[in-house]
Design brief:
Arc Repressor Mutant, subunit A, 7-stranded mixed sheet, alpha/beta, Rossmann fold, DNA-binding, homodimer
Chain lengths: ~220, ~220
DNA sequence: GTTTGTGAAGGATTTCACAGCA
DNA sequence: TGCTGTGAAATCCTTCACAAAC
């Protein structure tokens, strides 16, 4: 067993492109909305029309994971939604912590859209002595010094960063050190993260700035 | 001058890829942060380190628009930021309207990050008779029936959609009919827009959902 | 010596187009 | 007939690598 063989990578199948992973939640969202409008079957054509993309791309994306459709019919809506949720790890709940309980952090913990999708914010942190100890949206705000312990004790897998820009990198470093591998960053900077950590930014200003080019 | 020549398309230069347009605001953001830390020059290597991307990609992106660097030295930070802002249409202000003055709309109009970047929210709309007429963050909330007139009168170029999901497509259609070409959509659906209209979505749930795949 | 700007090469993603199945 | 799943082709995007400029 000394040398590499062509079959050494059986089971380590070629990784699914990142763009594909980012599109699957869109499919889940459309499917769930489509099923509540009473339809059982959907074709890649219809899915594509809803998402303004080509049917071929949808079929190709799905083919990375299996064969979910029936020729001549299309896809069973509920079945496909379930499969995709399972693939994405969305058929379970995830614990999250918010760091930074200023205006933005308060809005985030009060936002009612996370829990129905399985994202439970179960801890809140802040650096300020005035805010630590307060209860906000039912969460007792903790000091950032307790981050690592709480992440471990409460099985927190997701960090949501809502601190001001000049504290953001420090906080992200602390989350990484605590073992967090998924970070949602609301601070308007491009943070440094090591390989193996996924980070996504929410910055409405960046979104606006990328649109003015077309109307300039 | 009957037939096409190789130079017929002078001036209709090949369009800049959309991905490139989406990265330019990132460069602007880094440059502005870099200049406030006292540096005059920056290399594509340094820019790349900040953004976790390759120097070659940055140089290639910039080359779509001109030659902004000096060999052996790098880029003048302030100059490059200015050029990019001008290219993107960010060296001016833009008027925006928010539609939907519930929890989310109130948070958006109260967010202090837009104005410093030249995005001025100067009108607010809602469908509910109870909310119309109220003053929120200094804005008199108008009825949606006044949308088209106000867009014209106040030279509004950007629509920000913060209505509940079941009203979102209607509102987007109304914005399009009013002549709006840039829409920032906070509602969790994939809306239909005609060619020539740019729309960007802000959906933190989608961002979270695309990360769980990697920690599943 | 350093770093840009850019053709050419390489790699990734999308679309085509059709065999195969219901 | 209708629509999927998928190799092959086409397109798009990134990286390489080096001449030219400072």
């Amino acid at each position: 067993m000394a040398t590499s063989t062509p079959n050494d990578n059986l089971g380590s199948e070629s990784p699914v492109p990142e763009v594909v992973i980012q599109r699957l939640p869109l499919y889940v969202r459309v499917l769930s909305q489509f099923s509540s409008s009473g339809n059982d079957l959907i074709s890649s054509e219809q899915l594509g029309a809803h998402l303004q993309m080509t049917p071929a791309q949808i079929r190709k994306d799905l083919s990375y994971f299996g064969r979910f459709g029936k020729q001549g019919r299309g896809y069973d809506v509920a079945m496909l939604e379930g499969e995709l949720r399972s693939i994405m790890g969305l058929n379970r709940t995830w614990n999250a912590a918010v760091i930074g309980m200023g205006r933005l952090g308060r809005a985030v913990v009060a936002y009612p859209g996370f829990a129905p999708e399985g994202f439970n914010i179960i801890a809140a942190f802040d650096a300020s002595a005035e805010i630590v100890g307060q209860t906000i949206s039912g969460l007792a705000v903790q000091s950032i010094s307790q981050l690592t312990d709480t992440v471990k004790n409460l099985d927190i897998k997701i960090g949501i960063v809502t601190v001001p820009i000049d504290h953001a990198q420090k906080v992200i470093d602390a989350l990484v050190k605590a073992g967090i591998k998924s970070i949602l960053n609301y601070a308007p900077l491009s943070p440094q993260v090591p390989e193996g950590v996924t980070i996504r930014g929410i910055d409405p200003v960046l979104s606006l700035q990328s649109m003015t080019y077309y109307i300039r």
